[in-house]
Amino acid sequence: MVESIIGIRGKDFILLAQDANTTKYGILNMKFDTNRLFKLSEHCAMLASGEPGDVVQFAEYVGKNIQLYKMINGIELSPYACANFTRHEMAYSLRSRNSYLANLIIGGFSTNDSDQQKAQLFAIDYLGAMISANVVAHGFCQFFALGVGDKLWKENMTLEEGLHMLQIIVNELGMFV
Amino acid sequence: MAGEYDTAITVFSPDGRLFQVEYAQEAVKKGSTAVGVRGANIVVLGVEKKAVAVLQEDRTVRKICVLDDHVAMAFAGLTADARVLMHRARIECQSHRLNVEDPVTIEYITRYIADLQQKYTQGRGRRPFGLSTLVVGFDYDGIPRLYSTDPSGTYHEWKANAIGRQAKTVREYLEKAYTEQIYESAHETIKLCLRALLEVVQSGSKNVEIAVMYRHKPLKTLQTDEVEKYIAEIEKENELEAERKKQAKQQMGGQAQPTTTGPSTTASKKE
């Protein structure tokens, strides 16, 4: 549960960042180009961290079911709908034979005209709890990201400001971007 | 256990036929016509749009549907059966992607649909699906495909095919009219599909629906004005053809001419 994933909501965008390392036994870095970003639809993506096998299995399962919904019903689900579907799957599997040790961040831009807030960002943890917030993070950087977000996040952030905030968080982690 | 249907509905007749399957094929013949044509870089589906009741919303009658980003299907026969089959096929398309990380090949999904149709011809108190399908699309190696299934569960690959009402007439027309040149040109392929459909459907853009799929592009339904442009072009070609034949006839000095073998000059208006 060390690998970090961060999400920042801006004026009309979502910024998603992920740690691309996979570590083992607290000391061994097995991979430095892990992909934790999964496309759910044309305007919605999901970051997932945690147990590597569970991450891929759960993320792909959710992604394909969202595609299936699009095929059957002819419309793409909004990020809000995707997140709620994912949360439901996570919560359902928790009290069953197969639970997934995966923490998720789902973010996207809603194409529904009726949505007032178009840029939508959600975080779901491995126990199936979901929140919507302006800055979300899982893993080690949670300790830094949420604090930095509290201080620096403001309404209608531009992409440059978002990237600047991300740089500060990443610097705290002692990592190089 | 009570409730288990052991009585099969589809059983062999003394002379080796499955009557329920044949009756299902009759149901297909009552459905409105669907035509599929394969080109070198395009696949085209055309369906007859039956007239809807005055108060009915036109757009809810969907005979051409997408199964995945690269596969589309048209059907002829029982609409409700088609809905069920479509749903299962869509699930299978995504399931395949999930398990093997690859989109389905057109042959695979056709085989899946055909297997489903076959299952219902064998026992357990169920009747066969009353529909035939035309499955089109591009495999991930870029090759265009057209397949057709029927209630018995058989499937074949075609260059061009028709199902539903007066399918035989349309297929005969396609056999005469399909050429290599048409295959090479997307424009001509669309026109051929339209011509074939107009053999048995009343001429007019509101009676037909044409959908085309180019390689690596999603299925696109042609707008009414686009269809009308094609129809206008076809009618002009028909007029020119009729002119040419009239002149040839006059040149021959009024001798009796054999009937034309080209496209019919007036679309036969069968109901």
TrEMBL record, chain A:
One of its GO terms (cellular component) is proteasome core complex. SUPFAM superfamilies: N-terminal nucleophile aminohydrolases (Ntn hydrolases). GO terms for biological process: proteolysis involved in protein catabolic process. Gene3D superfamilies: Glutamine Phosphoribosylpyrophosphate, subunit 1, domain 1 (3.60.20.10). InterPro entries: Ntn_hydrolases_N (IPR029055), Proteasome_alpha (IPR050115), Proteasome_sua/b (IPR001353). Keywords: Proteasome. This is Proteasome subunit beta. It comes from Didymodactylos carnosus.
From TrEMBL, chain B:
CDD domains: proteasome_alpha_type_7. Keywords: Cytoplasm, Nucleus, Proteasome. GO terms for biological process: ubiquitin-dependent protein catabolic process. It comes from the Eukaryota. Residues 5-27 form the Proteasome alpha-type subunits domain. The keyword Nucleotidyltransferase does not apply. It comes from Didymodactylos carnosus. Residues 258-271 have a biased composition (Polar residues). Residues 241-271 are annotated as: Disordered. The proteasome is a multicatalytic proteinase complex which is characterized by its ability to cleave peptides with Arg, Phe, Tyr, Leu, and Glu adjacent to the leaving group at neutral or slightly basic pH. The proteasome has an ATP-dependent proteolytic activity. PANTHER family: PROTEASOME SUBUNIT ALPHA/BETA. The 26S proteasome consists of a 20S proteasome core and two 19S regulatory subunits. The 20S proteasome core is composed of 28 subunits that are arranged in four stacked rings, resulting in a barrel-shaped structure. The two end rings are each formed by seven alpha subunits, and the two central rings are each formed by seven beta subunits. The catalytic chamber with the active sites is on the inside of the barrel. It holds the Pfam family Proteasome_A_N. GO terms for cellular component: cytoplasm; nucleus; proteasome core complex, alpha-subunit complex. SUPFAM superfamilies: N-terminal nucleophile aminohydrolases (Ntn hydrolases). It is found in: Cytoplasm; Nucleus. Belongs to the peptidase T1A family. InterPro entries: Ntn_hydrolases_N, Proteasome_alpha, Proteasome_alpha-type, Proteasome_asu_N, Proteasome_sua/b. This is Proteasome subunit alpha type. The keyword Glycosyltransferase does not apply.
